[in-house]
Design goal:
With about 140 residues, this protein is an all-alpha fold. Helix content is about 65%, strand content about 5%. A hairpin with a 2-residue loop joins β1 (about 70) and β2. InterPro entries: DivIVA_domain. This is DivIVA domain-containing protein.
């Protein structure tokens, strides 16, 4: 029977302590909007950005990349951010390469198109000049 009373009194003391802690931490009006005291703010999730934000990512940046680990391996948010950034930069570079290849193909088409016109004009001129030269040669 003594154990029963001991456990009952212990339970009442614990419930009273929890009630006082909650009531004591509430704001003055009792609404609980702002809690005084409490735990300290959590440290930031990241200490630094793993990739440079001010310039394009280079091979040395990727080689030097070390992602922070968590209890279950690498931190998923950091890995996702790095992969998103690398994917975006690769897409930009692919678009730029496609743009340059298109411009090169256009320049080559223009050059070959003009070359064909020049060749055709030269052939016509030589054909006309050849006839004119033959006429001058025959007329002498």
């Amino acid at each position: 029977m003594a154990v029963f009373w001991f456990l009952l009194i212990s339970l009442v003391v614990v419930i009273a302590a929890i009630t006082l802690a909650v009531v004591g931490s509430l704001d003055g009006d009792g609404r609980g909007d702002a809690v005084r005291g409490g735990l300290a703010d959590a440290p930031p999730d990241r200490l630094h950005e793993p990739l440079p934000a001010s310039r394009a990512v280079g091979r040395a940046d990727v080689d030097a990349l070390r992602l922070p680990t968590a209890a279950r391996g690498y931190r998923m948010q950091d890995v996702d951010d790095v992969l998103d950034r690398l994917g975006a930069e690769l897409a930009e570079r692919d678009a730029r390469i496609a743009e340059l290849e298109s411009a090169l193909a256009g320049a080559q088409a223009v050059a070959s198109g003009h070359g064909g016109l020049f060749d055709k004009a030269r052939e016509e001129h030589e054909a006309a000049g050849g006839r004119g030269a033959q006429e001058h040669g025959d007329g002498r």
